[in-house]
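Hi W., the zinc ion complex you wanted:
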Amino acid sequence: MKDMHVHTHFSPDSGESFTAYIAAARQKGVHTICFTDHVDTNPNDIGTGYYDSGAFFAEFNVAKAAAPDLQLLAGIEFSEPHHWGKELAEYQKLPYDCIIGSVHSSGLEPDLFFSGLVASGVPAETCYAAYWQAVLETVTAGGFDVLGHIDIPKRYYRELIFDEELLREIFRRMLSNGIVPEINTSTLRRGLSDTMPGRNILRLYAEEGGKFCTIGSDAHTAGELAAGNAQARERLAEFGLREVTFIRRELVPAK
Ligand SMILES: [Zn+2]
Ligand SMILES: [Zn+2]
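Structure:
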């Protein structure tokens, strides 16, 4: 099993250590982990300024040397790449295996994460309209390898609203910019019945010619490592998609 979306204590919302993930990987039969801590640049985000790439690589390299039986990969989850091209360019110079680009801020005012938009009574339609526009802009800007949790507002709104034509356009731009979607399984731990994305959106990706996906748990604790992996692999098989990883930002089909 491979888990291409995992957070450690280098993320402001996780306290987990590399050693705990390594122990969990050996126990669960996970052989590839990509550590993708949050890199937030938006001044309204609580995580801004938290990530330290130098400290990350120092600790990552020690963990990697201590676990030659596993494939440990270095990554980041970079928020809103389309707004922060200059900052993203700095991270592109570092030896990351995989950069996830994620839209955590829909661009609405007040500038809140989705849980905050729900709490403020912002209607789902309003959130989704702004969110899909931001996703379109971010995949057009590119500069990253994997689009994180493509339909994340559903994790908070508990409903999914999308325009099929706009989604198809998003996938066409991803394909021309070499960006693959992930199948993020965190929704399965939060009472939703399907992955992010689920069948309705994966079908459009496959119809537009998409062939590859990564699988990520979005774990913030070692107990969550590779959670939901079997369901994600079922989805891939259903649409004839192939699991991939990235090494030094090159796509590698899984064996
Ligand atoms: Zn995220
Ligand atoms: Zn994440």
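Residues 2-253 form a domain with the TIM Barrel fold (CATH 3.20.20.140).

W.
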